[in-house]
Write the structure tokens for this entry.
Amino acid sequence: TAREVRGYHASISGVDERGRPYHALNPGTFYWAHATFFMLTVQVAERFGGGLTEAQRHTLFDEHVRWYALYGLSMKPVPRSWEEFQRYWDHMCADILEDNRPTRDVLNMRRIAKPPLLRLLPSPLWAVARIPLVRLTLWVTIGLYPQAVRERLGLRWTPHDERLLRLLGRLIHHAWRRVPERHRFHPRARAGWDRERGRPVTGPVETPARNLPPEERRGLPQHYVP
């Protein structure tokens, strides 16, 4: 899986608007992308999962290092500890990240595709239904950004927004606790837990269609389709 994901990035290269060459497999670039996935895990746990202990943060950091090592790239950009990672993260957010077109493209959700789960919903209805969905998704995205990133991009986030996001997080946390444990996991993660607990796992574990991109986009290299 790690080799496959790494391979998706082999053709992503070019020259940016300021004439600087880039390649997705540059270790510093690739690790930064990996770091954002790691911090998303931390943020979701902090915001919507009831919080983390300091020991749990250290454990997640160690696991993210082992995860990154599977890609077979240089480990030079990887911080040596959770404390060092926090300094790295703050430096990247405050001093390195730029306000450019790709950054703004991430926030442009107006053309978000209809998810497979709603494939039977008529397109005109989806065009209406996605408006509040896009607004909510954008609002949560901005709320999860570090303050330094919001300031760099000129994104407004008020104390009232923060209180609402914290309230939403508590509601999601309490609702999630009522979901049966086995149903909280992606099928691949559930199969992993089953193997660890000695339960039989038969056949390859595939991602449900509801989690996949639209069929016409599944062959594109930026989409991982197990």
Remarks:
- The chain has a mean pLDDT of 89.
- The radius of gyration is 19 Å.
- Strands lie at 13-15, 21-23.
- The longest strand covers residues 13-15.
